[in-house]
Design goal:
Length: 151
């Protein structure tokens, strides 16, 4: 199997998980946040952290890319952020635990992807990714809550 098929498989599994666990009303409600913080966040990270700072990036995406940006990861991150916000707890103390746990999961998962040769970290494989993910998730959660509060 070609390595780039893993992108399709993973995105498909996430999509099935989404439609199984989250009802359509909540998917529609959270889709804008998924696009904003997931897809745009990932594309921004690819450009800034990957292309500009050379900290790491996606590998072996074959024909599924455009201008050195793979197509499926932004889609997967969109779905992932819909799930993330759907399960985000209301209690502040639980939010801290949730965000930290999710950042740890993302760090571990990015290293699994590195072992599958579809992602690479050019420096630290634990500290740098954890810092990136926890910053991304804290910032996204804060911004979503501010946007919700203003509406």
């Amino acid at each position: 199997m070609k390595t780039y098929y893993l992108y399709i498989i993973y995105t498909g599994i996430l999509a099935l998980t989404l439609i199984t666990l989250v009802n359509r009303k909540n998917i529609r409600k959270l889709a804008i946040y998924g696009l904003l913080f997931g897809a745009l966040g990932d594309i921004s990270a690819i450009l800034l952290l990957g292309h500009l700072l050379k900290l790491g990036g996606y590998l072996n995406y074959g024909p599924f890319g455009f201008f050195n940006i793979p197509f499926f990861p932004p889609v997967a991150w969109t779905i992932w952020f819909i799930l993330y916000f759907y399960f985000l707890p209301d209690r502040k103390s639980l939010k801290y635990i949730y965000i930290t746990t999710v950042a740890l999961y993302a760090t571990i998962f990015s290293n699994i992807l590195a072992n599958l040769n579809i992602f690479k970290w050019n420096h630290s494989k634990i500290i740098l990714p954890f810092f990136i993910y926890i910053t991304w998730f804290i910032g996204s959660t804060w911004a979503k809550e501010r946007l919700d509060h203003n509406n």
